[in-house]
Design goal:
about 30% helix
Amino acid sequence: RLRVSEMIGQGYQCVGAFEENNLIAICGLWIITKYYIGKHIEPDNMIVLPEHRSKGLGKKIMQWVYEYGASQGCVASELNCYLSNTKGQLFWANEGYEAIAYHYQKPLLL
């Protein structure tokens, strides 16, 4: 909970899809500015329940994300996808994303 509270304080938002009152898909997002791309929207942690996959729901959520980003002055969308997530990589490629870099992490000892 502490991490999510900190994320919200940094501008993290979520959009969800519901069937009746049940959450069946969710996508977090950030709107940030980076030197090399400018103001952009970054989808984060897109999850669609397995029984609702391959029905176009992810595509609908992403269309909303793109429209929302454009309404906020974003010029692009950028995201991270794990190397092991081959289905996710295919989804993002089908959405028109191009893999242009590696994302590196290094833990910091405090």
